[in-house]
Amino acid sequence: MLLLICPVCGAEGDETDFQYGGEAHIARPASSTPEAVSEADQYAYLHVRANPKGLHHEQWLCARGCGKWFNATRDTVTMEFKAFYKMGEKPPRTPRTRSAKP
Ligand SMILES: [Zn+2]
């Protein structure tokens, strides 16, 4: 069971009280003219996601609380959350618990 805390309203609960929203901090290809974005950049934006062994930044929705999205940092090996932070904030500096190499 995952234990989460919403950084917006303070609601606590398990993963059934929240909704997973995928990887956080994915930047949309920057361009004022969409036709200037390469197919490779658009494909990466839509489909390529990290699958790290270790710390992973994720989006979660406070489904049974305030209804706001927030970010969390979770260790994918231990399933332990290391940090919760609001949208628009940078992830807090957290020590790496595992090497990214296999
Ligand atoms: Zn909340």
If you had to describe this structure to a student in words, what would you say it looks like?
The chain has one helix and six strands. It is globular, with a radius of gyration of 15 Å. It has one domain (3-86): 2-Layer Sandwich (Folate-binding fold), CATH 3.30.2270.10. The protein is mainly beta and 102 residues long. The chain has one helix spanning 39-47, and strands at residues 3-5, 12-14, 19-23, 55-61, 69-75, 81-86. Residues 97-102 have low confidence and may be disordered. The structure holds zinc ion. Zinc ion (ZN) binds next to loops.
Question: Looking at this structure, what is the CATH superfamily?
Answer: Folate-binding superfamily
| Count of the separate structural domains | 1
Spatial shape: globular
Q: How far is it from the N-terminal to the C-terminal residue, by CA?
A: 25 Å
Q: What is the CATH topology descriptor?
A: Folate-binding fold
Range of strand content: 25-35%
User: If classified by CATH, what would the architecture be?
Assistant: 2-Layer Sandwich
Helix share bin: under 10%
Poorly predicted runs: 97-102
Largest sheet: 4 strands, antiparallel
* Strands side by side in the biggest sheet: 3-4-5-6
Bound small molecules, which ones?
A: zinc ion
